[in-house]
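Section 5: illustrative case.
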């Protein structure tokens, strides 16, 4: 699995920050994670490497910061 991060992409930077807080994620059945929402206190988005329940992914259907964070986390765990 590869992740391309860019300082020109705000999602990349936010994903990096999110991955540092992985200890706050909820482990979900099926291998995904509940990642806390930055804008809605107490809300979590269900995310894995290929999908996410956040509005950004639902609208754009492109990789969101939550999916990137999961990918970064999994790469770091495998290292």
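Designed sequence:
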């Amino acid at each position: 699995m590869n992740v391309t991060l860019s300082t020109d992409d705000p999602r990349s930077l936010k994903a990096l920050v999110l991955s540092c807080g992985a200890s706050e994620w909820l482990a979900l059945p099926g291998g995904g994670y509940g990642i806390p929402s930055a804008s809605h206190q107490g809300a979590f988005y269900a995310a894995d490497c290929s999908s996410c329940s956040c509005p950004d992914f639902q609208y754009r259907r492109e990789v969101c910061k939550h999916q990137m964070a999961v990918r970064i986390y999994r790469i770091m765990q495998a290292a």
